[in-house]
Amino acid sequence: MGRSPWNAPAGSTMTRAGPSPVRLTAIGVPSADRACMSTTPLDTELFSTLLKYCTVQFMEPTRGRGAPKEPLILDAARDVFLRRGFGPAAVDEIAAIAAISKVTLYKYFPSKELLFAAVIRRDIEAAERRSDDHLDALAATTDLPGDLRAFAREFVTTVTGPDLLRMRRLVASEAERFPDLARTWDEHGRLRGLRTLRRLFGALAERGLLAGDMDVAAEQFLWLLLGAPFNESLFTPAAEPAARDLAAHADAAVATFLAAFGADGVRPV
To answer: In what residue span(s) does the HTH tetR-type domain sit (predicted)?
Structure first.
């Protein structure tokens, strides 16, 4: 008969296939003789400790990234971070909302910082997906002003949505205490967007549709499009710009951008 994980030689360790031996004394078990091999009844507290520990160690499978519980964890974390802030947010509350144990949560995300970074990445990637079709149209455009306006309208509407703006305010408020979080936001947000626009504008310049320094063009385009809405949202959190105002703002940003960087025949007259 195969050896049970509950059986151990006399001493203080219990072994099983897989991870290294676990010392029972570390979880309050005085010895393997008394805890795992003895027929003497265990007291209630000791039994509960053993049951909880061994359920986690021997019965709960390790789940990899991308498993079904990850979206639940990220949803719960996002809710708690936005309500509490990063510092006061408690992993216990996140686990409770996601209906999982804290041990399971840490299998997915070993620290609160990594969990917050994952929330940021998911939000930004979701925003990018909503603009993918417009980026594809721009890459193959035969109507640069029209396609750039369509992209600008979609992009500014997406990134100034209430949830992303709340997350941006949260990151800004925690930047001094948690600079790594601010760098994560900047890397996955502004810098990633700049890289995408530089590649796109560079390709359009090669086609003779744009002219000038495309690194500067990308920075100027982002600022023209997002500067005013971001500043307004930072200082007047309750204000949400109307869709028609954002569309007009996006159209004006595109006109200014093309006046500076559009090639001959593309600049507005």
So the answer is: 67-127
